[in-house]
Structures are given as structure tokens and as C-alpha cells.
Amino acid sequence: MHVFPNHIPKMASSSLHVIPCTILFFFFSVFLSGLHNADGSSCYKSIISFGDSIADTGNLLLLNGGGSAGPGRLPYGETYFHRSTGRFSDGRLIIDFIAEAVGLPLVPPYAGGAQNSSSFKSGVNFAVGGGTALNSDFFRKKGIMVSNGYSLDVQMGWFKKLLPSLCSSDSECKDTLGKSLFLVGEIGGNDYNNAILQKRTMKELRTLVPSVVSAIGSAIAELIGMGATTLVVPGNFPIGCNSVLLTTFKNSPQSDYDEHTGCIKWLNEFAEYQNSKLQEELDSLRQQHPSAKIIYADYYNATFSMFRSPGSFGFGDDVLKACCGGGGPYNADPGVLCWDAGAKLCDDPSKYVCWDGVHLTEAAYRTIANQLLAGPLAMPIVNSTCPKIAAKVDDKQNPPVSPKVDDGQSNSGAEMGLLRKKGVVAMYSCLLFATVFLVMQKI
Prior knowledge:
GDSL, globular, Rossmann fold, alpha/beta, membrane, two-stranded antiparallel sheet, single chain, 5-stranded parallel beta sheet
């Protein structure tokens, strides 16, 4: 929003001398607005996100009262932000790179501005670390422990609560949501990870899949009914390459491991099975809602390609080893977590795919985003809907300047704000000079 005066006080006929300044003032304002949209921000009005720690931009940290627990302390955030923001990585996430590629600010966490809905006009993120597709009651009946109750239905509840502050009528809401990009996931990974870490059998794991897929499908259908038209739905990762799970099953027989990557085959096969069922659900939803653009984001293959050929993407040889963790063959021994004082931290996170044993590094997330937006796994509907989308996601390393918990503003947004402030100063200086000039003429 520009902070310019609505009008300029009328002067005598000699005020024609002010016209060049006024014209310059107007065109400079238009130029600044054009800069804001030149990178493709007109494609989507906002980004609305649901999910877990893969997309959490600070919700879990804020919901737990902030502070320095878990991802609220360095080395989390060290690479790009140079401070912790509540993201479960050393820097930006896939959602951050997508926002930058389509020309929108980084998506702020819902918990960071629930009392200030104006901060969500360009997007809002409901994803919470530890979140699940299924609710706590489901897991309680199954005897499976989960880390928190921020399930997909809870996140949907937050969205419905916030919606009246984003739009005031059904038609306005349909217009607003129709011009927004929805990211539904990744979600469901924790539903399975919790069961796996609690040593549930493969048969039990497979019984979870229909319920998880149904929960995701129901949320998508509800969002479409509310007005959403473009939805990106990621699949699960190749969890057999996860440092924590590799550590958990480190005594597995040699036949369990993929000879080319060292990942555990049965875990990856399960992830592929879950993804195939999710894609079947999405196919069904496309038939039911032909006007909606429902896009499957292939996180599995985008990630597995890095484990299969790390050097091709600039990663080192210890591709299964976490950059930050508690030591051991995969630097993921459970006794010491990345945020603990005794954690072992690598020298260069950009050479690692795995960050803390569960989550990935900024370099890995950038590689995934590149493949999805411009590479062999590109999402054509997103690119065709947004033709100005960046051909390659940004790789800049300059952080936003702020000592606070991340407010979701990108570096480009901070630069734009500074440029606008300088423009305002220049325009007022011009008008002041013209006014003094006119006064001197009268004297």
C-alpha cells in the first residue's frame, strides 16, 4: 500500500511548475507497482498451505510459545535467514521457493498473526510440524502415539475461522480462493512415521493408507467446494533414505538395502504404494471436479534422484548422512538431536540432502522445487496457469533483515519496501523544493 497523500493542495496559476514533480510522483508509483508484479505475482493472489514440518514456516514454534526450543534455535535457519524462524531446515523450504518463483512474499504462519488477518492477504500457512492427516482420536483407538493434535481437520478449522476476514461474501470468497494457489501437503508422512517408529507391521501400515488418502481427498473436495481452483498435492518422500529410519533399522539384513543407493527397499516400496493410492484418489477428484486443477507433486522421485545421483546435483558422497545430528553411521543417533548442545554439525549443509535426519537441507528443497517448477518433474498446469513463473528458483543467500521470528516477508519484499520508502522521500523532497521555489517567486 502506498503512503502517498490523496491530493496536493491547490496553488496559484504558477503551480504549473509543480506538474513535472507530480507527474514524476505518479509514474514512480506505477513503476514500483510494476516491479512488484513483474516477476509473476499477478498469477496468484495468495498461497494457502496445509501440511506438516515439511512446509511449517513457524507455526509449531509459535504454538509452543516461541522461545528457543527445537527449531527455535540455531543451527536451524543458519543458511539463509541466519537465525531460527521455526522452519525445520537450515534455510528455506519448498513452499518458500514456490512463493518466490510465482512472485509472492514468503508465506507467513497462521499462528503468527491470528489477530492481524491483514498480514494474510498474500497467503497463510496452516502447516504444523508433527501434523497428521488423521486426527488424534483415530490414533488413540489404534494405540499409536502422535506428537501433537494439529491434524489436517484442525488446520482446516483454522482456515474456515480465518476466511471471513479474507473475504466478506460468498462471491468474493470464491474469487479470492479461485485466484489462490493451494498447497495441500505434504501431509500423511507423520501418520506412517509414528507407526513405523513404534514398530508396527507392514500389514498395519497398509491399513492406514485408505484412511490417510481419504482424509486428504475430503479436504481437497471441501476446498474446491469453497472456491479453490488450483491445488498442488505432494506425495510422500522416499522414507527408506531417511537418516533416522536408516538408524532405526541399522541392523537389517543386507538384502533389505538398495545396492545403488543404500536406502531400505521395503520402506520406499511402501511410500510408492501410498503415493499410487493418493494419485488414484486425485484422479477420482479430477473426474468429480473437472473445472479444478488438481496437481500431483512428485516429491518421491524429485528426492530419490538426489540419492541415486548426488553428484549430478552438487551433493557430496555421504548422501544418506544427516548434516546435523547425534552421531553414528548416519549422524542420526536418537540420544542427541540437532538442536541439542552435543549435536554434530557438518561444515557445509549445501553438500548434504538430509538436514537433521528427518528433514532436508535448503539445498535439497531448492533442488526439489527446481525439478517441480522447471525440470523433468515440472508441474505443467502450474506453469501454464502462471506463464511468468520463474524458470529456475532463486538461489540467493541474502537473508531478510529482522531479529524477530520470521514474519513471512521475503528478501525481495524487504527490498521493495525500502525502495518505496526512498521513492516517497524523493517525491516529498521534489514537492518541497517546488513549493519553496513558488514562495521565493512571490517574494
